[in-house]
Amino acid sequence: MAASRRTRSGGKEESGTPQAKRFEPDELEHLYRSMLVIRRFEEKAGQLYGMGLIGGFCHLYIGQEAVVVGLQKLARPGDSIVTSYRDHGHMLAAGMDPKGVMAELTGRAGGYSRGKGGSMHMFSREKGFFGGHGIVGAQVPVGTGLAFAHKYREDGGICMCYLGDGAVNQGQVYESFNMAALWGLPIVYIIENNKYGMGTSVERASAPGDLCQRGAAYGIPGKSVNGMNVLDVIEHCAEAVEHVRAGKGPYLLDLKTYRYRGHSMSDPAKYRTKEEVSKMRSESDPIDQLKTRLLDQGVFDENHLKDIDKQVKGIIGEAAEFAQQSPEPDPSELWTDVLVDA
Amino acid sequence: MPTQILMPALSPTMEEGTLARWMKKEGDTISAGDVIAEIETDKATMEFEAVDEGTLGKILIPDGTEGVKVNQPIGLLLEEGEDESALEEAAKAGQSGGSGNESGGGASDGEADSAPKTAPAAPKSGPAQPPVPSSGNHGAQPDADEPTYDSFKRQTVREALRDAMAEEMRADPDVFVMGEEVAQYEGAYKVTQGLLSEFGDKRVIDTPITEMGFAGLGVGAAFARLKPVVEFMTFNFSMQALDQIINSAAKTLYMAGGQMGCPMVFRGPNGAAARVAAQHSQCYASWYAHVPGLKVISPWSAADAKGLLKAAIRDPNPVVFLEHEILYGQTFDVPDVEDFVLPIGKAKVERVGSDVTLVAFSRMVGHCMAAAETLAEQGIEAEVINLRTLRPLDTATLLKSVRKTNRVVTVEEGWPFAGIGAEIGQICMEQAFDWLDAPVTRVTGADVPMPYAANLEKLALPQPEHVVEAARAVCYRSQA
């Protein structure tokens, strides 16, 4: 038993060539569409930011789509999700309405937080999405508490707790690991390792060693997974999710991914080369990879994928339209929701 | 119709920028994601990527143009199938602007020297704020205690802070700077620009994102008599480190019977920037000012910033130094003397007046100066006190003014309950009760977490017109 709780992959990144044909066509279509919705949503958000319709900080998820789409494929209704401020993709993957998310970005009454939270602070109890947190690492104990509640209630749910590679050096992450392991809490800790915590590369911020082994001292098994390929994500993360769902305690995943854009809209990203970004874009893009595979294996033809593109463009266009037409919150909203009336 | 390419907003505080360089020529094909131009914002040079596909039909704003307003059309994009005749049509159609609703503007409530934007739900439109006065030599000569200077240089608050650190680092090899993105990135808000290249990575240190860790590490280094300047990317993140600041830094001298001082500075932007919402828009003035064993400084002008940061670094105690992101880009006169240092614990009368005392710190001093101009037009002469230091508070300057004007309005961005204004009101009660002709009145941030929506954010923050109203009320003037 003890052995099975040790790090399994020894830090080697798990990737392989899962056969697209193992998935049903409708599943593959769902994956493709979900990633595309996030990509187009984020491009539109960037555009609206440029027009001054979105303010403050806006952290785009472009490039990382396979991580959340793959992992949420493994989630079930009743699970809970929590993440940091790079959260638009998670909300869309959790099934939240792009209109409500976009309208929150523009700070309008039709947004999920009625315009009061903005890009970094959005929630949906209905979809089990518990934020959207602006402080690096703060979501990790919170996610551990969500897992605690699943176990307490014996509701069969688990928590998918996402954190960035920058967050792994916050002390509260390890306080959480200890409690989760000690009490066998049902939580998957998912490091979205996009190589840079703002402008600082993982190598400059974290002592040498694989991030997936950061739970080893607590007996938390860990695994590194190629996060640029959605089928890899599903295939190689399934074991972790099963482990947690079977009541064997927490699991730590290190998803190797990449963000194409700056840390936020105001980051010129001078800390990496253009070549590095364009190499990732041209060789490892999650959407292109799936598209190529679907076409090569004859799952869909070009026209079918074009239709999906068109539909997605329509969905995002509607969301952007809604986000601009929705009124600003009523001034009285300033004073509501500070406390629950009791 | 060709699509207008609009000048993008590329930072939360950007209202205009320089179109540094087009990366595409007229006639070039553009795909989504292509870099089409380089834009200089208030913080950095950014690449502007295309979202739409097409051909760059016309460049409307040439390379090197400064002061291009956000959302101003800078070029025209021809869609597939459109040719140049479409450009002529566009010219005839005139400027239709973006499809956006302006009231959602991102860079709202930017620099204090721009007129407040009229958001739909704003209180009655306020007075246009006058340019920020220079700190040493404006109209009504302020403070007799303040030395006068002959020459000044124009500097932003950002530059003044950087110079203060650099001068102290040159003078004392024990001074070092650490924090998130302070070295290679040169500061998330570019306050530490140039320090790495001058002082090297032994003294300008990028930390992991680990506030409790590096704040505590700074305390330990200070116990060992180094002089750390610990930057919090924003003071919102200092809450992660609160235990180290209060339990370790502030209390140890006392607990050690005077043996073990903690000569260090915790600095960074405090308060609300623009549209960054509840978890990034909080004023910590009253939190830290509550704690014995700390000194707490909150400068307004570039001169304050420079003189007080130098003093803070030299001070043998832990100093919390609360800056303001919106002020970083504002320019003031800074005395051009060698080693300009200001005393900690000394307020400055920025404007002399006889009818009412306006007391503020940080960005709200600018609001008070603007309000004072409006009040002067209405026959009310306001005295404006820039507190500069919150702990120890300069009660002498405050009381001297109260005994003259008999009326006090305090202004702060933070919440009202147990705020700095509450403390000032109590000091006036205790020490100047017989001189008061009206209740001490507070203008504060709304007692709610900071909302994100542009209209609500504006309602949550004190505006100059609120100061004017409060001043008129304590002077018993009816509504204008």
TrEMBL record, chain A:
Task: Extract the ranges annotated as region (Disordered).
Answer: 1-24, 321-342
Record has Cell division as a keyword: no
Name by which UniProt lists this protein: Pyruvate dehydrogenase E1 component subunit alpha
- Entry's InterPro entries? DH_E1, PDH_E1_Alpha_Subunit, Pyrv_DH_E1_asu_subgrp-y, THDP-binding
Give cofactor(s), names only.
thiamine diphosphate
Question: Which keywords fit this entry according to its UniProt record?
Answer: Oxidoreductase, Pyruvate, Thiamine pyrophosphate
According to the lineage, what is the superkingdom?
Answer: Bacteria
Q: Provide one Gene Ontology biological process annotation.
A: pyruvate decarboxylation to acetyl-CoA
Q: What is the lineage of its organism?
A: Bacteria, Pseudomonadati, Pseudomonadota, Alphaproteobacteria, Rhodospirillales
Q: Which Pfam families match?
A: E1_dh
Question: What are the Basic and acidic residues biased-composition ranges?
Answer: 10-24
Automatic annotation (TrEMBL), chain B:
Keyword Oxidoreductase included in the entry's annotation: yes
Please indicate if the UniProt record lists Calcium as a keyword. no
Q: Which chemical reaction does it catalyze?
A: N(6)-[(R)-lipoyl]-L-lysyl-[protein] + pyruvate + H(+) = N(6)-[(R)-S(8)-acetyldihydrolipoyl]-L-lysyl-[protein] + CO2
Task: Give its E.C. classification number.
Answer: 1.2.4.1
Q: Which SMART domains match?
A: Transket_pyr
Gene3D superfamilies with a match to the protein in the record = 2.40.50.100, 3.40.50.920, 3.40.50.970
Database matches in CDD domains: lipoyl_domain, TPP_PYR_E1-PDHc-beta_like
What Gene Ontology terms for biological process does this UniProt record contain? pyruvate decarboxylation to acetyl-CoA
Any Pfam family: Transket_pyr
Needs which cofactor? thiamine diphosphate; (R)-lipoate
Q: What GO MF annotations does this protein's record show? A: pyruvate dehydrogenase (acetyl-transferring) activity
Q: Where are the transmembrane segments?
A: none
Lipoyl-binding domain residues? 2-78
Query: Where is region (Disordered) located?
Result: 82-152
Q: What does this protein do?
A: The pyruvate dehydrogenase complex catalyzes the overall conversion of pyruvate to acetyl-CoA and CO2. The pyruvate dehydrogenase complex catalyzes the overall conversion of pyruvate to acetyl-CoA and CO(2). It contains multiple copies of three enzymatic components: pyruvate dehydrogenase (E1), dihydrolipoamide acetyltransferase (E2) and lipoamide dehydrogenase (E3).
Protein name (Swiss-Prot/TrEMBL): Pyruvate dehydrogenase E1 component subunit beta
